[in-house]
């Protein structure tokens, strides 16, 4: 059974930084793309960033480009989201997601392709 466990959320002032971590278990982590999504109150879940199985390719939402960095350590079965220059509009629950399709495929921005989800971690950015 695949499990994803996030950590690293919290309360930060605008302009600050946080690093989210997501540790996976239950399958060969290094064979699959991973993503981060977020959901603010009253809004739909939205794509933030994704990374290919090898880590060679990364993809970002426009809102994250230049401020967030996704990375992975396959030896530790962990994917990270480094968030800098945080804004109040980044406030949301952040979810780690694992691609449930074929291994060694490119990640997508569509949350329907991710069949494995963590429990979420709250990020709150105060102004």
SSE order and pairing:
Elements: E1 3-7, E2 10-13, E3 18-25, E4 34-39, E5 46-51, E6 58-60, E7 68-73, E8 78-83, E9 92-99, E10 114-117, E11 121-126
Parallel strand pairs: 2-11
Antiparallel strand pairs: 1-3, 3-8, 4-5, 4-9, 5-6, 7-8, 9-10, 9-11
**What is the average of the pLDDT values?**
95
How many DSSP H or I helices?
0
Rg measurement, Å: 13 Å
Helix/strand/pairing class, anyone? mainly beta
Number of strands: 11
Plain-language structure description:
The chain is an all-beta fold and 127 residues long. The chain has no helices and eleven strands. Strands 2, 4, 5, 6, 9, 10 and 11 form a seven-stranded mixed beta sheet that branches. It has a four-stranded antiparallel beta sheet with strand order 1-3-8-7, with no helix packed on it. 33% of the residues are buried.
């Amino acid at each position: 059974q695949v499990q994803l466990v996030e950590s690293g959320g919290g309360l930060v002032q605008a302009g600050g930084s946080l690093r989210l971590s997501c540790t996976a278990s239950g399958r060969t982590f290094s064979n699959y793309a991973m993503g981060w999504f977020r959901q603010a109150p009253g809004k739909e879940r939205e794509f933030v960033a994704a990374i290919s199985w090898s880590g060679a390719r990364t993809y970002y939402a426009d809102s994250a480009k230049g401020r967030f960095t996704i990375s992975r350590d396959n030896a530790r079965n962990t994917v990270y989201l480094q968030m800098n220059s945080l804004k109040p509009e980044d406030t949301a629950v952040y979810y780690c997601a694992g691609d449930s399709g074929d291994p060694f495929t490119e990640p997508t921005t569509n949350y329907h392709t991710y069949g494995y989800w963590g429990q979420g971690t709250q990020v709150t950015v105060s102004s």
